[in-house]
Write the structure tokens for this entry.
Amino acid sequence: MRPMLVNTSHLAIAVALLPLGAWGAETNWLDVESRIQYGYYTEDPRALAGVMELLAPSESDSASRRYYAGLANYRLTQLGAARDKGRAKETADACVDNLDAAVKIQKAKNLEQESADALALESACLDLLAGLEAWRAPFAASRSGSQIEKARHLGPGNPRVLLLDAVEVYERPKSSAADADRALQGFKRAAAAFEAERRETEHTPGWGAAEAYVYLAKCQLDRGATLEARDALERALLIAPEFAEARRLMKKITSG
């Protein structure tokens, strides 16, 4: 059984220091996920690029390999959107391509019920792509909506589906008060779902709990609810002490 809150920093640091190819023939996807997350939390694109080398196409292609290549590109896009828009477009495109491939592999193996995570993440990458390339926005936004709808159908209680669905609402350029409330409630549901998942047997994908609490804190700050925001950030930092964004938000609160 997994504890409700797990300090993952030591595991993430160890994984970040592993040489490429250290997993051998049987890839440990939990280690790969931890390495991706550590690169994202510490805002280190070079670490994420190193993971991408490990996830390069090979003869032994799999849905898991494609999924984690998608996740790594998603994180690279998030970190690079404000620094290098051209590169961010490339990683967003790669994210969509890899996740589309993951879904197709799962479908070919009659594992469509397991594709909620990939569909939700592909939807998130399409949203990023829509924001980076105006001429592709209508198609990307439409397809994003289609993919997240499929993900909700396949995994209505999946915490990453709930998280990414709420992120899409929160990040809308001209969101309304109703959207803000919908996003807040979505992040609350996602956080509760992550707590339930963390009590289960460890599995992959398993990322997202710290992010849910950071987004919950942002929503609370938007509403002026500082104490609630601080509580959410404390939970995020218990899960991922190295989470740079959570640390910045906490500093903002504590410094007045």
Remarks:
- The chain is about 70% helix and 0% strand.
- Residues 1-25 have pLDDT under 50 and may be disordered.
